[in-house]
Amino acid sequence: MTTLSPEEIERYKRHLLVKNIGGQGQQRLKAARVLIVGAGGLGSPLLMYLAAAGVGALGIIDDDRVSLGNLQRQVAYRTDDIGALKTERAAALVHALNPHVEVEAMPFRLTAENALSVVSRYDIVADGSDNFATRYLVNDACYFARKPLVFAALGQMEGYVSTFRAFEMDESGTPRPSYRDLFPEPPAPGEIPSCEEAGVLGPVTGVIGTLQAVEVVKAILGLEGTLVGRLLIYDALVGRFQTIALKWDANNPLTGLAPSIRDLTVHAADSEQRA
Fold first, then answer.
1. Which residues, other chains included, contact 175 with Cβ-Cβ below 8 Å and sequence gap of 6+?
2. Residue 1: is its pLDDT beyond 70?
3. Distances from the Cα of 48 to the Cαs of 96, 154, 212, 214, 247, in angstroms?
4. How far apart are CA 110 and CA 39, in angstroms?
5. Residue 218: CB partners within 8 Å, gap ≥ 6?
6. Which of 153-167, 174-188, 213-227 has the lowest mean pLDDT?
7. pLDDT digit string (tens) for 146-159?
8. Closest by Cα among 82, 81, 86 to 108
9. How far apart are the C-alpha atoms of 110 and 91, rounded to whole Å?
10. Distances from the Cα of 142 to the Cαs of 92, 122, 162, 191, in angstroms?
């Protein structure tokens, strides 16, 4: 188990007092490697809280640059960052927050060709992407690499969080649900607008990204009560949280009884279109 230095003990002492964390839990956080897909509205609070919590290594993948329109919700960036690569600025922020955290900045897209090699190098994946093609790709890559996936998404004034471990069976021997059980098929182009197209209340991204960070930490620590098999929904307009149960679909093309998806080549066309 990775040991903590005296400086780290002082830094994390509020964690060490929590009975569900303690010294061993903090050592698990230090030993963990988390991949963050998307360094935008969700990725901003996510990477900040994971760094502050002492997660030992963070990978941040995003090919975008900071724009003025990002600053309303992407709190990892400042006005002076406009035009800079998000991954570079995010990595600098992580180092400033916690020099004990290693960061790998990946200023490129996740594609059908590189997804497995990237995902396989981490213990847990947190998806904060804002398009369906990437979400399906991340889901499938995590399934094949047998990596837990903490998913989050946003609406204008609502957000969603869940944890997928589709490579495992539940107590009854049934496969645990995946993103493809939540959304069996991608919506038609333009049917559901992206955050850039529809807009979003800035603080909602902070709420959901922070909840996503909590789920990642719980997964690292092996705590009970994760959102595996459940979808957490936050409605900011009425101030309400609710959870709904997710179920495995026997017709799921990835994990169903007769799966048609055997590798990531099904995503090759989408990767080319997004390139």
1. 166, 168, 169, 248, 252, 255
2. no
3. 10, 19, 12, 12, 32
4. 13
5. 225, 226
6. 174-188
7. 999 999 999 999 99
8. 86
9. 18
10. 27, 10, 14, 26
pLDDT in tens, 12-31: 999 999 999 999 999 999 99
Q: Tell me the H-state helices in 55-131.
A: 86-97, 115-119
Two structure tokens written together for 12: 């994390």
User: What is the model's pLDDT at position 76?
Assistant: 98
Q: Whole-angstrom Cα distance, residue 220 to residue 234?
A: 23
Structure tokens at 67: 């724009």
Residue 88, Cβ neighbours under 10 Å: how many? 17
Q: Which residue has the tokens 């399934």?
A: 143
CA separation (Å) from 220 to 14, 109, 148? 18, 26, 10
